[in-house]
Design brief:
One of its GO terms (molecular function) is ATP hydrolysis activity. Pfam families: ABC_tran. InterPro entries: AAA+_ATPase, ABC_transporter-like_ATP-bd, Molybdenum_import_ModC, P-loop_NTPase. With 521 residues, the chain is an alpha/beta fold. It has two domains: 224 residues, P-loop containing nucleotide triphosphate hydrolases (Rossmann fold), CATH 3.40.50; 244 residues, 3-Layer(aba) Sandwich (Rossmann fold). The chain has 15 helices and 20 strands. The chain has a six-stranded mixed beta sheet with strand order 6-7-8-3-9-10, sandwiched between helices. Strands 16-17-18-13-19-20 form a six-stranded mixed beta sheet, sandwiched between helices. Helix 5 crosses helix 6. The protein is globular and about 70 Å long. It binds adenosine-5'-triphosphate. The site of adenosine-5'-triphosphate has 20 residues, from helix 6 and helix 9.
Length: 521
């Protein structure tokens, strides 16, 4: 007896006939066959004997810890590195298309890197100068430099929730808005293949979902664009991903389905979440009854910030006391960075609001530098100002002077930095240049910079961008074991699961800074 042909299965993967025929006609997007991948100017290959085949209908996620080789693999897939022997890397799907690989494959990186962005032409406080007209490069101009058609721009802007920001100066966009703008520009390029390196970084939960939905649409529609995502292990796995590759130490160490991948990491994340909650509750109950005795470090009373008739912060009141550890939360554009700029002395509207810092009302004679001397700050914006040729020691050392230009350091200052590098698990990093370091490592250097002068108030705005779980663990251990009880911490994150367990309080801004609320845990 024969089974009817339509109910028979074919091939090693037991596909139905129609699946089998589709499978047979599926082209290969890229194939590396025992390839040695070389970086320009470096003798030894960065990947040795790399064998990897990606069919066109596969939706690939590349993940792994810091320095695992994720970005290098993405660059290799985009044809940006030389490969030996000749012919060991092929892009069969693209062979018949006009142009070069770089015309067809767009690799967009979202890692902080001052060289990628013309921020240097601007001064740091410029963003907060509400009266500056929008006659700079606007978001609309920025998108037009890639695509002239207004209707195409309007469509992409709507998909990524950027429409209301089109007339605004690019420099005034919030961190998450800037990233969405860069993704919009990448989508407007209409590439044959799109590779995105950490696109979720800095996006709030709603916009992460929106972006993944947009990419799903792009990748899975008939005749869609193959999309490859590079992500941190702890990032959301898109439902439409069909394959996950894990790298470590410049090797592929795991290759499988998203379901198997999630099963591998789920038990660990669930256990950690339960431990965090328990630790926080204990810390909160310990301080019960004593908190009100501690001096206020920050007091905001009915603070308002309005830009061009738009209320960014609306009637915000908040008291931060010495030794508090706060998470400042809220969606992209809700005003978190604006609020923090009040606390670092950078916002011109601080004087017209009721604000006291370190027990002194703003506008009663102290300078910006008096305030900065008592505050240690890390933020994605500050990161952009660092010259990549600086060494880790020089970059961290600028924290003593509240600037971004290296100055000579005393032996005592150098040994403070060395001690902090050790406490953050990065001993021996002093002479490495920033440009040789991953984003996460650079961010750790800047975290050390924020601590060198042992500031009374530590402000970490999205400190964990680009950090892997091991590095986040090191920072948490530092907070628990080395932060002084009298030091105060305020940190911003978009990832609930990344809030260190030592951080016991939350202050949440709603869209437009309204509905601010305060919770103990
Ligand atoms: N000078 C300005 N003129 C007009 N609007 C501005 C100006 N500066 C900032 N904005 C707007 O203020 C809002 C708040 O920006 P802010 O950077 O404080 O948000 P955020 O909560 O830190 O966002 P993210 O999570 O994306 O970092 C944004 O919508 C931004 O576009």
């Amino acid at each position: 007896m024969f089974r009817p042909i339509l109910s028979r299965t074919f091939g090693p993967r037991n596909l139905t006939l129609s699946q089998f025929l589709r499978h047979q006609s599926t082209k290969t997007l890229v194939k590396f066959d025992n390839a040695d991948v070389h970086r320009f100017g470096i003798k030894d290959p960065v990947f040795k004997n790399l064998s990897l085949t990606i069919p066109e209908n596969q939706h690939l996620v590349i993940t792994g810890p810091i320095n695992a080789g994720k970005t290098t693999l993405a660059e290799a897939l985009a044809g940006q590195h030389s490969v030996k022997p000749t012919g060991a890397a092929k892009w069969p799907l693209l062979e018949s298309l006009p142009g070069t690989l770089s015309d067809q494959i767009h690799l967009v990186s979202f890692q902080e890197n001052s060289a990628m962005f013309s921020y240097g032409q601007h001064y740091y406080q410029e963003r907060f100068n509400f009266s500056d007209p929008d006659n700079d490069l606007t978001l609309s101009d920025y998108l037009k430099s890639r695509e002239k058609s207004d209707s195409k721009i309007a469509k992409v802007a709507e998909t990524l929730d950027l429409t209301h920001l089109l007339p605004l100066s690019f420099v005034k966009l919030s961190n998450g808005q800037t990233r969405r703008a860069r993704i919009a520009r990448a989508l407007l390029g209409n590439p044959a293949v799109l590779i995105l390196d950490e696109p979720l970084m800095g996006l709030d939960i709603e916009h992460r979902k929106k972006l993944l939905d947009t990419l799903e649409n792009l990748a899975t529609k008939p005749g869609g664009t193959p999309v490859v995502l590079v992500q941190r292990p702890q990032d959301e796995m898109p439902e439409w991903a069909t394959r996950v590759i894990c790298l470590d130490g410049m090797n592929i160490v795991w290759d499988g389905t998203p379901t198997d991948y999630l099963q591998r990491i789920l038990p660990q994340t669930t256990k950690e979440a339960a431990e965090r909650q328990k630790y926080r509750q204990e810390a909160l109950s310990k301080e019960e009854g004593t908190r009100d005795l501690r001096a206020p470090v920050v007091e905001l009373k009915s603070v308002n910030v309005i830009y061009n008739k738009r209320k960014i912060l609306d009637d915000i009141s908040w008291t931060v006391r010495q030794g508090d550890r706060w998470a400042l939360l809220g969606p992209n554009g809700s005003g978190k960075t604006t609020l923090l700029s009040f606390l670092t002395g950078d916002h011109p509207q601080a004087y017209s609001n009721e604000l006291s810092l370190f027990g002194r009302r703003r506008g009663t004679g102290e300078s910006i530098w008096d305030i900065k001397a008592r505050v240690g700050l890390v933020s994605p914006e500050i990161h952009l100002y660092f010259n990549q040729r600086m060494s880790a020691l020089e970059a961290a050392g600028t924290g003593f002077f509240d600037g971004v230009v290296p100055r000579s350091l005393s032996a005592e200052q150098t040994s403070t930095i060395e001690r902090l590098f050790g406490e953050f698990g990065m001993s021996g990093v002093e002479n490495r240049k920033l440009q040789e370091m991953s984003t996460g490592e650079q961010r750790l250097v800047l975290l050390v910079r924020s601590l060198v002068k042992r500031p009374e108030l530590i402000i970490w705005d999205e400190p964990f961008q680009g950090l892997d779980l091991g590095m986040i663990h090191n920072v948490n251990t530092w907070l628990e074991n080395h932060m002084k009880p009298e030091q105060t911490l305020i940190m911003v994150t978009h990832h609930e699961e990344e809030i260190p367990r030592a951080v016991t309080r939350r202050f949440k801004l709603g869209a437009g800074g309204v509905d601010a609320n305060e919770t103990g845990s």
